[in-house]
Amino acid sequence: MHELSVTQSVLDIALANAGARKIKQVNLVIGQFSSIVDDSVQFYWDMITKGTPAQGSLLHFERIAGEMTCRRCGHVFHPTDETFECPSCSSPLVKISKGEEFQVESIDVE
Amino acid sequence: MTTRIPVVENILSANDRIADRNRVLLDEKGVYSINIMASPGAGKTSFILKTLEALKGRLKLGVIEGDLATSIDAEKAMAAGLPAVQINTGGGCHLDAVMLADALPALPLSDLDLVLVENVGNLVCPANFQIGTHLNVLIASIPEGDDKPYKYPGMYRGVQVLIINKTDLMPYVTFNMNYFIKGVEALNPDVTIFPVSCKSGEGMDAWAYWITEKVRAGKQG
Ligand SMILES: Nc1nc2c(ncn2[C@@H]2O[C@H](COP(=O)(O)OP(=O)(O)O)[C@@H](O)[C@H]2O)c(=O)[nH]1
Ligand SMILES: [Mg+2]
Ligand SMILES: [Zn+2]
Prior knowledge:
The complex is a heterodimer of chains A (110) and B (221).
Chain A: H1 2-18, E1 23-31, H2 41-48, E2 58-64, E3 67-70, E4 76-77, E5 94-98, E6 102-109
Parallel strand pairs in A: 1-2
Antiparallel strand pairs in A: 1-6, 3-4, 3-5
Helix pairs in contact in A: 1-2
Chain B: E1 3-10, H1 13-28, E2 32-38, H2 44-55, E3 61-65, H3 74-79, E4 84-86, H4 97-103, E5 114-118, E6 135-141, H5 148-151, H6 153-157, E7 161-165, H7 177-187, E8 192-195, H8 204-220
Parallel strand pairs in B: 2-5, 2-6, 3-4, 3-5, 6-7, 7-8
Helix pairs in contact in B: 1-4, 2-8
Bound molecules: guanosine-5'-diphosphate, magnesium ion and zinc ion (ZN).
């Protein structure tokens, strides 16, 4: 049940940044490679925000697709869950260039 | 009127701060520590027991058991003269830094060289939660199949050591080692790999030698 600890962490960060202002929306950026948070956490969010300045606010998810860059030819591609080989030159030498994000990006307050 | 306030903070930054404190405590006590992660049944408990056996008389070890499914028999640990602590995760899917912070004082840290932590059997969640150990170790096992790096990239990405366990089963299982290693190296080119069999003991010597050197280097550094 990591959803509860994850949403609690998000709330702590949001409240620390909001001061006394009312929070309307919390914007999260979650990469495909660290996607332990799914949209169902809104349910936990609604519970734990009751009575806080974030009550009634929305969690907004920006999902970042996994992206790799070939270390041989520089080609940028989205890996599948079957191969990470460069589709352009077949090199297995690649590196992750996007998809590890796991952040509270910003909050919307009024 | 709505105002957007930029934050840009890692969601688990609070956990990471506590993990840092665990690390400071371990360093103060001169204890090296390992976080052992794997899917259920990959051989975490077996690997810990084999490691205890291999390092007996060389290093003083303690065990923190976070996997309720197959907890190390208290008698086995006692027979080997080992301090062991059980963490009750309350059915959780991973250990976090707070759980380790609670468990560490229950071990006689000043008397130990190395603490082995068995994380909850899960290939997704533990990767995101640093607990403060010096080394993250993943155990993959042959019967799980050669596609796991592709299906669980987050886990393969965040470890310094990969143990490939159950090599004794290679003749009986379809497992393309080349395909597996390609996936691992794409995600984690610097990972150190040890193929072992906890059943036959094959490969455990290389691991035992390597980790002993790490612990000694840690004590000097
Ligand atoms: N054939 C074989 N079986 C193993 C090996 N290592 C562990 N096992 C078996 O795999 C099962 C699960 O092991 P365990 O250590 O409890 O896995 P854990 O859930 O990751 O702690 C047990 O039945 C072990 O005896 C190995 O190297 N070879
Ligand atoms: Mg176990
Ligand atoms: Zn290429």
